[in-house]
Amino acid sequence: MSTPRQVEADLGWALGRVARAHLRTAQTVMGGLPGGPRGYQVLAAVARGEPSTQLALARKLGVDRTVMTYLLDEIQAAGLVERRPDPADRRARRVELTDAGRARLCDLERRLGDAEAHLLAPLEPAEQDTLRGLLARLAAVDPDQASACQVAQDIAACDADAP
């Protein structure tokens, strides 16, 4: 029988604590932005030219398409994005940053970068880069790749094989 780990060694606890600290900071930085941190993710994805249609953007960011519609309505009302018919499919809407949206995004990126630097200050620069890279790799994995039932079965199989 193994010795129980300290809570600080628990992945869920550590990820939750860091995620909550990041979210609090991001909400402060994003104050006044429609949708807060989620609105920022929309602006950043649009600026990178990632999914250009409203539906593809919702899928990329993991936002329900109806929620994305309301979120884009708010961001557009703030003058940060425009939606135009997609020339390839007139039923689809392309989302594009306005000049005001681009300027707001630049300011938010600078402010969020400063906040993240403070959050990650206990780590060396190389460790910060490694952490960002590892998290990006994990985030890129499709969470639906394995169902919760399959994961539970795999864990049970490992437990059955353990001495």
UniProtKB/TrEMBL annotation:
It comes from the Bacteria. Gene3D superfamilies: Winged helix-like DNA-binding domain superfamily/Winged helix DNA-binding domain. It holds the Pfam family MarR_2. InterPro entries: HTH_MarR-typ, MarR/SlyA-like, WH-like_DNA-bd_sf, WH_DNA-bd_sf. Residues 8-140 form the HTH marR-type domain. SUPFAM superfamilies: Winged helix' DNA-binding domain. Keywords: DNA-binding, Transcription, Transcription regulation. This is MarR family winged helix-turn-helix transcriptional regulator. It comes from Actinomycetospora atypica. The lineage of its organism: Bacteria, Bacillati, Actinomycetota, Actinomycetes, Pseudonocardiales.
